[in-house]
Amino acid sequence: MTAADASAADGDPLPSSSPSSSPSAGDARRLAAASLAVGDPTGWFEHLYAEARDGRAEVPWDVAAPSAHLRALDLPAGDGRRALVVGCGPGRDAEYLGALGYAVTAFDISATAIDLARARHPSSPVSYAVADLLSPPAAWRHGFDLVLESNNVQALPADIRARAIAVPGMFVAPGGLLVVLAAATSRVDSDGSGPPWPLTRAEIDGFAVDGLRPVSITQVDAAGTTLPTRWQALFTR
Ligand SMILES: C[S@@+](CC[C@H](N)C(=O)[O-])C[C@H]1O[C@@H](n2cnc3c(N)ncnc32)[C@H](O)[C@@H]1O
Questions:
Q1: Keyword Methyltransferase: yes or no (predicted)?
Q2: CATH number of the domain encompassing residue 78
């Protein structure tokens, strides 16, 4: 893991001084291209985690530290409230919310990522699960006081993105909060260089589904990276 890759974990922007072809970004893009070519837009995540487990690739976002953008929200103590972490990977943000006192469920489409999360945090109270954001358990509807979507939708291509954006808000309980953290763009077309593919304002607005309304939608400066602006968007029901 290079310094560039450690920075990449917080939204996948790479320091502007680093080559966009850093080893782990290259692994992700190689496997994403192969999956997309066979019409399987999410298959590459499992392939990447499995190759990394076997020492043949690196996962660019796999760092121990929780997201700096999540920490910057300075969330209050969880006091046992229910939190759901979407696309949790090996669990850095799930463990952070667990330490804040939330009762955390965290899921990922990659079984290898969930195995890794459990192995890394053997005595964790976090409940890790393999699940697909595009086909989630019905019992999760309106089931969580806090839902975190951080850096996942931006890793999904345009053809499934609208479907994915419509889901996290469905998990939010009355009075609950959806936190969306993502790289930002003003382009409506992709420049073809992803993943990641940063989100437009219209895409961020699209998280307000099923009675959810925005609390705040702000652009955060991520100067010095190749993706220099980010979204910090909060919604409630
Ligand atoms: C770019 S990574 C970000 C990981 C983590 N949120 C972070 O910021 O460290 C995207 C994650 O979403 C997961 N993912 C992708 N598509 C998913 C889906 N349809 N359902 C659940 N997880 C998914 C991937 O396996 C991967 O762990």
A1: yes
A2: 3.40.50.150
- Which residue's CA lies nearest to atom 4 of ligand 1? 89
Confirm if 12 and 60 have CB atoms less than 8 A apart: yes
**For the chain, what is the domain count?**
1
Q: Is there a domain that residue 74 lies in?
A: yes
Cβ neighbours around 221 below 10 Å, total: 9
The domain in which residue 124 lies consists of 65-236
* pLDDT bracket for residue 157 (50, 70, 90): very high
Q: Is the CB of 134 under 6 A from ligand 1?
A: yes
Confidence band, pLDDT 50/70/90 cuts, at residue 22: low
**pTM, rounded to two decimals:** 0.92
Instruction: Report yes or no: 50 and 71 within 8 Å, Cβ to Cβ.
Output: no
Residue 5's pLDDT is 38
pLDDT in tens, 171-206: 999 999 999 999 998 876 666 677 999 999 999 999
Within-domain flag for 163: yes
Instruction: Name the more confident of 148 and 3.
Output: 148
109 Cα to the center of ligand 1, angstroms: 7
- Any domain includes 29: no
Q: Is the CB of 155 under 6 A from ligand 1?
A: yes
Quote the distance between the C-alpha of residue 20 and its chain's center.
20
Could you give the CA distance from residue 75 to residue 72 in angstroms, rounded to a whole number? 8
- What sections of the chain are H helices per DSSP? 3-8, 23-37, 43-53, 68-71, 92-99, 111-120, 158-165, 201-205
CA of 166 to the centre of ligand 1 (A): 16
